[in-house]
Amino acid sequence: MTQAEQIKALKDSVAQLEAENRQLVSRNLQLSEQLCIWYELRQRVNWLKEEMLNRRQLQKRADLADDAELMALMEVRLEQNPAVLTGDFDIAQFAELLGVSQRRLIQLFRHTPMFKSVDDYLDHLRTLRGIQLLREHPEYGIAAVSEEAGFNSVRTFQRHMQEAVGMTPVEFRMMVEKEP
Fold first, then answer.
1. Residues 6 or more apart in contact with residue 94 via CB below 8 angstroms
2. pLDDT tens-digit series, residues 76-101
């Protein structure tokens, strides 16, 4: 091969390498732009995660403040309407009485250290009502007091009385009758 042919072949190779180099530079620029877009998108996602976490924390704090208001509303509504504490009164009716969802009512009791559940709270109120009836109406039988307080059975009333005051309804009534 002559020197002129070698120079031409080298020039062709240089031209081909320059074209490939331009392609690689162009590809690198595209990849760099995509990387910048990905990085910016990742920053936005992280910012959104932080915002969501902050909002959840704010919502939890707001819910805790609302919990006190809801507990107060609950006590007022139940005092105004003690007849709702029948044995058939359930979470759905309780939520409707308060104007909140069942889910919200269940969440309320998750934050409340005194009662494990809505049913636990209702049983507590029924027990208090039973104690009140035992004091105010000595003429009522235990079954009548149990039914009036909203318990479905005398045995359930006896168990709750035993847990609450450490004595059965009969023992409690005898203690009350001995008081001057």
1. 84, 105, 118, 122
2. 887 777 767 776 777 888 888 888 88
